[in-house]
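Q:
Got a chain?
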Amino acid sequence: MPKVVFFLVPKLHLLDLAGPAQVFFTANDLGYQHDLYYVAEAAEIVTAQGVPVKAQLDWPDLGRDDLIVVPGWRSPRLSPSAPISAGTAEVLREHHATGGSVASVCSGADALGAAGLLDGRRYTTHHDLTDELAARYPKATMVRDVLYVMDDRVITSAGIASGIDLALHLVAVRCGVEAAARVARQMVVYARRNGEELQESAMLRHRGHLSDLAHRVQDVIDRQYTCRLPLTELARGAGVSERTLTRIFTTATGLTPLRYQQVLRLERAEHLIGHGATVESAARAVGFEDARMLRRLRARD
């Protein structure tokens, strides 16, 4: 079971911690298991909002499938140095060097920079801190006005609520985009994606609506998009007429059920082709009888 370790610093923002932690906690409830840990350099951390948080002092054993997340702390302006010890910086460096992933929310990027993990990489942070961090870490490339950036297992996010978006992206990468969509729906948040690898997944791009019926039909299509899914069967499963299903689904997602399925197939086929598959083998893998329909869809899109 992969571990997710949150490293806590004094005056951390509650939502920077609670948002991503809730994503992984909800994923656990849905069967996508992670072990959650909370580590700090003191047994108790007082958050920016005044709530004390207990933490363990010892790091668990970490492997390449595990993730360290550094939530942000209250920092209208950055302190002269990141509030982490040399020992913690070494843990971050060593974990990444051995194949693990390291993430930050908001000013947590300062901790990654102090550990040398931003050098030569693209990253982002809260808009109030971009100029300061860009000056502090000139060997790194600041990406402004995005929710999060992923570069060689170093994942940074803009701050506060964007930590939820970052965590949903990581669930999508680790457990699949359907898992991330289910978590977002359970948390009653938009499954937002923005500008980086996998962030434009169709399974999430068309989930930003409040129609429970459309979500339930999308769940079916997401699981079985390589199969033949007649509208009559989808409507029967949803308990509505074909006409009603088409109207509600199209209003919610902007696509008909058939077009939504085609978009999923096309997206997966493009991924396979990008990784060396032929058009013919990609077409078969996503459920087309031959490559003609796939070629037509690629030409149209």
Q: What stands out?
A: The chain is about 45% helix and 15% strand. The radius of gyration is 21 Å. Strands lie at 3-8, 35-40, 44-46, 52-54, 67-70, 101-105, 122-123, 141-142, 148-151, 154-157. The chain has two domains: 3-186, 210-300.
